[in-house]
């Protein structure tokens, strides 16, 4: 429920506080389900491997990461943020690199300068019940691009924050990238009249740009 209180976030006893769309929210603590999906297990394995690699670095290498992390701020929470630790920056970048199939970095890279994200709007077609999801992309991207998407939601929704990683953007063909297989593997075939939100992020040395978002509604059969 919405409450009037000082900004706070996190667990306290049997209650959890968080910032909602219309202000401060307090709710009862609940233990999230643990379905151990392939996606969950893959991410956990990636973090385990990155953590193991961090421990194998030399003290000088860890010091370099700690120094580089001083200029990388955490995501704002309750209006405050702070610099990452060396291990946090190492894990953040190398876990992202693993998602796009890159090699682990032992030395911290310089933050990159991103060009314009070439991926455009989402288009969903329904050809006799055969539903396809494609992202406009006139040219081959010069960087790896991660695709995130939400599960199907009501067409009346204007926003959604429930994004999950689908995978790396497929190569464009005739001006678009077909993400149907990626989406169906994650969420199944979206039903007619449902809305799907998609976000694409360019990736360079583990850093991601701000991303571009798009959405579309599954149309009736034609």
In short:
By secondary structure, the protein is an alpha+beta fold. It has four helices and eleven strands.
Overview of the structural elements:
The protein is α+β, with helices and mostly antiparallel strands. It folds into three domains: 1-32, no CATH class; 38-99, no CATH class; 122-217, Sandwich (Immunoglobulin-like), CATH 2.60.40.10. It is 23% helix and 27% strand. It has four helices and eleven strands, in the order βββαααβββββαβββ. The protein has helices at residues 38-55, 59-69, 86-99, 180-187; strands at residues 10-12, 15-20, 23-28, 122-127, 130-136, 144-149, 164-168, 176-178, 195-204, 207-208, 212-217. Strands 6, 7, 9, 10 and 11 form a five-stranded antiparallel β-sheet that branches. Strands 1-2-3 form a three-stranded antiparallel β-sheet, with no helix packed on it. Strand 2 (15-20) and strand 3 (23-28) form a beta hairpin. Helix 1 (38-55) packs across helix 3 (86-99) and helix 2 packs across helix 3. The longest helix is centred in the N-terminal third of the chain and has 18 residues, at 38-55. The protein is globular and about 60 Å long. The chain starts with 9 loop residues before the first strand and ends in a 5-residue tail after the last strand.
Structural class: alpha+beta
End-to-end distance, in Å? 43 Å
CATH architectural category of the largest domain: Sandwich
The number of helical elements comes to 4
Alpha-carbon Rg, integer: 20 Å
Biggest sheet overview: 5 strands, antiparallel
Q: Can you identify the CATH class of the largest domain?
A: Mainly Beta
- Strand content bin: 25-35%
The sequence of SSEs as H and E is EEEHHHEEEEEHEEE
Shape descriptor reads globular
Instruction: Name the CATH homologous superfamily of the largest domain.
Output: Immunoglobulins
> How many strand elements?
11
The overall pLDDT average reads 92
Spans with pLDDT under 50 lasting ≥5 residues?
none
CATH level 3 topology of the largest domain: Immunoglobulin-like
Helix content: 10-25%
């Amino acid at each position: 429920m919405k409450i009037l209180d000082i900004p706070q976030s996190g667990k306290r006893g049997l209650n959890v506080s968080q910032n909602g769309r219309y202000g401060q929210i307090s709710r009862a603590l609940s233990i999230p389900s643990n379905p151990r999906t392939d996606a969950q297990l893959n991410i956990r394995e990636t973090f385990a491997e990155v953590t193991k690699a961090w421990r194998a670095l030399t003290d000088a290498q860890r010091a370099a990461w700690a120094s580089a992390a001083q200029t990388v701020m955490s995501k704002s929470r309750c209006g405050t943020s702070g610099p990452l630790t060396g291990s946090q920056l190492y894990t953040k970048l190398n876990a992202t690199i693993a998602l796009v199939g890159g090699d682990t970095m032992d030395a911290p890279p310089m933050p990159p300068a991103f060009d314009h994200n070439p991926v455009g709007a989402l288009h969903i077609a329904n050809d006799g019940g055969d539903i396809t999801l494609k992202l406009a992309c006139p040219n081959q991207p010069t960087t790896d691009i991660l695709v995130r998407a939400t599960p199907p939601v009501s067409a009346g929704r204007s926003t959604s924050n429930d994004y999950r990683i689908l995978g790396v953007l497929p190569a464009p063909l005739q001006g678009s990238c077909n993400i149907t297989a990626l989406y169906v593997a994650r969420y199944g075939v979206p039903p007619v009249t449902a809305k799907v939100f998609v976000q694409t992020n360019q990736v360079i040395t583990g850093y991601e740009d701000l991303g571009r978002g798009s959405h579309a509604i599954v149309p009736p059969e034609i």
